[in-house]
Amino acid sequence: MEIKKGIAVSPGVSIGKCLIIDSEDYRIPRRQIEPSQRMVEIQRVRNAFRDAIQELTELEAAQDDTGGGRIKDIFAVHLRFLRDRTLRRKIKEAVQAESISAEYAVSSVLREIASHFTNVKDTYISERAADIYDIERRVLKQLLGTKREDLGSLREEVIVVARELSPTQTAGFNKAFVKGIASDAGGRTSHAAIVARSLGIPAVVALEDLTEIVRGGDTVIIDGNRGLVIINPDDATVEQYEAYSAEFAALGHKLDSIREKPAVTRDGVKVMLLGNIEFPNEATAVLEKGGDGIGLYRTEFLYLNRPTEPTEEEHYRAYAQTVGVFKERPVVIRTVDLGADKYTQSKRFAPEPNPFLGLRSIRFCLQNLGMFKTQLRAILRASVLGQVKIMFPLVSNLQELMQAKMILHDVMEDLDEESIPYQRDLDVGIMVETPSAALTASSLARESDFFSIGTNDLTQYTLAVDRGNELVSTLYSSADPAVLRLIRTVMQDAYKAQIDLSVCGEMASEPEYVMLLLGLGVRTLSLSAPMIPEVKQVILSVTMEDCNILTRKVLGMNSERQISNYLRNAARKILPAAF
Ligand code: PEP
Ligand code: MG
C-alpha cells in the first residue's frame, strides 16, 4: 500500500481498478485471456517487437551522422533494448503465467523496469526511465494499431490515471464508467479539474509521479476530499474508506433536502446561487441542486473535440436548450474563451510561447470577427426565449470592451435588417479577471451592466502563478491578500456604479470562502452544480454580522497562510462533516 498526496479538486471518494492513459490516450486495462489464447498473444508480442524494430531501424537509417548523431545514439540504445531476448522472454512468461493480454504484459513489464530505473539515485540512470516509456509506447503502437480503444466506449468502471488531462479529454469521460480521476499535473482551477467537478467525478491532481508508480489494473482509492490517492490499499483501509464514502454520500443526501430552501442567511440576507456549466445538458443538474439560474456558461466547449467550428444553428440550439430549462431566470452566456489551455485544432498546430498571456478570450474573438459575430447572432436570437445576458471574458482594458460592444451593435443592426427578433436591452457585462480590469473597474463599470469576478484567472494573473502548473501550486491561492484587495476594489466600484456583481471563479464554490465573500458585499455566487448544496448550507448557518466580523479580521491580516487557516477553521465550525 502506498499513499500519495496531491490537490483535491473534485469531492467524493471512489475505489476501483486503475486505467492509465498516456499522452496518446492508450488505455491498457488488465485483460484476462483464455488459456487457449496464450499462444496467440505470445505471437502478437513477437510480431509487435519485430515491427517496432523495423520501424526504429528505418528511423535510425534516416538520421544523418552530423545533426542527428545524438538521435542516432538514442535510437541505437532503444534498438538494443528491443532486441534483448531476456526482455521478450519476461513478457512472454507474463502472458503464459498470468493469462493476460499482450498489451498488458508489455505495459506492466516495461513499467516495472522503468520504476527500477526511476528509483536509482544516479540521475543518468533514473533518466533512462523516459527511454523505457518511449519503448513501451512504440511497442504498444504496434499492438494497438488503429484499434486504439476509445475512452468514450468504456464498458467497465475505472479510475483514470494520467500524466495530464486536457479539458476536452475530461469532458468526454462517461461518468457511468469513469469513477475517479488522478493526474500527475494540474492545479485546482485548471480546466480539466473544473470539468471533473462539474461532472461530479472525484479527482485529485498534482500527484507528480503517480503514473510512474501505479500499473494498469492496480486497485486505487481516490479521496477527492483530502487530496489523497491510495495505491493497492490493504483490507482495513478499503473497509475504512467504504464507511467514509457512505458517510459522505449521506451528507450529500442530507444537503439535497435543503434544495427548495432559498439561500438566506440567518438574519435574512438573500444570496443568489447560480450554476457554472460547460454543456447545455448540465443546466438540469443546476436546477436539481437548487440553482437560481446560470451565472457562467463556458461556451468554448462547443468548439472543442470537433474538427470544424459550430454553425450559428448549433450555437442557437445549445443556448435555446439552456434557456429553456430556466425560462425567466437569468442565463449568463459567456462569449468564447478559447486560447490558453482551450484551443481549436488549428491552434494546436501553431502553439504560442506563452498561451495564457497570448491570443486568448476576447482578444481571440476581436481578431476572428466572423466567428465572434456568428456566436453573437445566436445568443441574440436565443435572448427572446428568456432572460439571457452576454458576458465578455478576460477584458483587460476599456478599449476592448468598447470594441466588443461595437461588434455586438453591428450584429444587432444586421438582425434588424433581417427582421429577426432579439432582446434589445439585454444586459451586457464583463468578467473581471485581470489586475488591469480590477484596477480600472470604475471606468469599466460605466460601460457594463454587470461584473462577474473570475477569481481563477484573477489569482493567476495577480500572483503570476500558472493555475495549472503543479510545480507552483502551493503558491496559487485566492486567499492571498493581493487578490482579496483587488476583489474588494472591484466590489466597491461596482457598488458605486450600482451595477450587479457576482463571483464565478472556483472561490465561489469553496465553502471556506463563503463568509468572506458575503462580508465583502457579494450577493451572487456562481458555481458548479454539485457544490451548490454545501455552499447553501454555509449561507443558511451564518449571520451577516458573523461574516462582517470575519471579513474585517481577514482584511487586517497580511499573510496568505494566516488567512487560509483562519477561513478553514471558521468553515469547519459551521460544516464539520465537509472538512
Ligand atoms: C475564472 O477565471 O475565474 C473563470 C471563471 O473563468 P475560467 O475558469 O473559465 O477561466
Ligand atoms: Mg477565466
Major β-sheet, in short?
Answer: 8 strands, mixed
Mean pLDDT: 89
The CATH architecture classification of the largest domain is Alpha-Beta Barrel
Distance between the termini: 24 Å
CATH topology of the largest domain: TIM Barrel
Low-confidence stretches: none
Share of β-strand residues: 5-15%
Task: Please characterize this protein's 3D structure.
The chain is 48% helix and 14% strand. The protein is built from 24 helices and 16 strands. It has helices at 38-62, 69-83, 85-98, 102-118, 123-126, 128-144, 167-171, 191-199, 210-213, 235-256, 283-288, 312-326, 345-348, 361-367, 369-382, 398-417, 435-439, 441-446, 455-463, 481-496, 511-519, 532-541, 544-555, 560-574, and strands at residues 2-5, 7-10, 13-21, 158-162, 178-183, 203-205, 219-223, 228-231, 272-277, 294-298, 330-334, 387-392, 428-432, 450-453, 500-503, 524-528. The chain has an eight-stranded mixed sheet. Strands 15-14-13-12-11-10-9-16 form an eight-stranded parallel sheet. Helix 1 packs antiparallel against helix 3 and helix 21 crosses helix 24 (560-574). It starts with a strand and ends in a 5-residue tail after the last helix. The structure holds phosphoenolpyruvate and magnesium ion (MG).
Observed structural traits:
single chain, 579 residues, alpha/beta, Glucose Oxidase, domain 1, Enzyme I, Chain A, domain 2, TIM Barrel, 3 domains, eight-stranded mixed sheet, eight-stranded parallel sheet, 48% helix, globular, binds phosphoenolpyruvate, binds magnesium ion
